[in-house]
Amino acid sequence: MIPRYSRPDMVEVWSQESKFRIWFEIEAHACDALVALGVMPEAHAKSIWQAGRTPFDSDRIQAIEDVTRHDVIAFLTYLGERVDEDAARYLHRGMTSSDVLDTGFNVQLTRASDLLIAGIRSLLDALRQSAFRYKFTICMGRSHGVHAEPVTFGLKMAVAHAEMSRNLERLEAARRDIAVGAISGAVGTYAHVDPAVEAHVCRAMKLETESVSTQVIPRDRHASYFATLAVIASSIERIATEIRHLQRTEVLEVEEAFAAGQKGSSAMPHKRNPILTENLTGLARLVRMTVQPALENVVLWHERDISHSSVERVIGPDATITLDFALNRLEGVIRHLVVHPDRMEANLHRLHGLVHSQRVLLALLEAGLTREDAYKLVQRNAMKVWDENRDFLTLLRSDPDVTKVLPGDEIEKHFDLDAHLKYIDQIFSRVFANA
Q1: Which residues make Cβ contacts (< 8 Å) with residue 293, sequence separation at least 6?
Q2: Which of 113, 122, 184, 265 is catalytic?
Q3: In this model, does residue 81 exceed pLDDT 90?
Q4: Is 47 a catalytic residue?
Q5: pLDDT of 408 above 90
Q6: Is 265 a residue of the active site?
Q7: I need a labelling partner for 218 at 20 to 30 A (CA). Which of 106, 115, 187, 266 fits?
Q8: What is the pLDDT of residues 358-389, one digit of tens each?
């Protein structure tokens, strides 16, 4: 991923040094297991650990790979150069390259997941604070982009909080599913490596052991993992799109913060554009595009091929780095969002009371009209508001077909904004019960 959309901690997870460090630890822990099994002298295992005390020379490893055309062999050759010949004989004993590659990749994915989980939790904190700050800030609820009934801006944030809480649960489950390793040797039969080695390595690397691995860890796990990242990205985009719509000039109920010295347009000095949430919309597309190749990676030939390998070298870093950046960016947007309650109130009244149409409909039903007749009466007057820009309450009071069922003073009782919000506390208690 390009530096513009990258954060250092997540980039470090995917650095060459981090990858080689993980590979080294897998090999060194395997040697410790061989010592426990009585296969390898303890002194040799200690010398191997000693060889890993200094950073790895990526250029030297690449130079070897340029000849061998095999990344794991290049690494093992390099490692063999750093330990004595007798100790090097025990490196990779009975293992295959997939044991290192797959276990190492899953270590990186679990570490990336930990950063993403932390990012979601920070975003949840921002959403919670915003939800309670604007819990009773009334604004227009819309369906099909058209005025529907009143909600509160805090409720919008509560909806986002609930959604991201579900995403947190999904990611935690995906992390558990991906946190597995396999040291089972060629075609996964343990013919040349004791299962105790796998158990020791996985325990040391904080992974579970794969129940059955062929020569690779099954890629249904990875497909599910990247699908989870895509769902989270889509939730980010949904929240970002809501903010973008609310920032439109005709609405202008919220705005992204506009910093001192910031410029909105190279041509139009007046512009204040929702660039951060637009950017999040684009980043979500990048994360989602990793799902299709991850699904296709499930299908491998027999016990192993490497058609998945080139894909994962790209989508692993790109999806997690991008999502990490997007979570952080959305958190910043929420924490610094400029909210305009006065615009929300003004927009509430743009249709001259039509937001109360359902309450009037229900009142007419309770007064004895059939649903069909009540609906016709309310809609007939509502259309005059749309077409003639008139006041809804005034029209209802002037309609004898309405007033003979519902007196004028009785109609006005149903034009109470607060009546639309009587269950907000109950909704919040559900959303934030465990927050």
Answers
A1: 311, 315
A2: 265
A3: yes
A4: no
A5: no
A6: yes
A7: 115
A8: 999 999 999 999 999 999 999 999 999 999 99
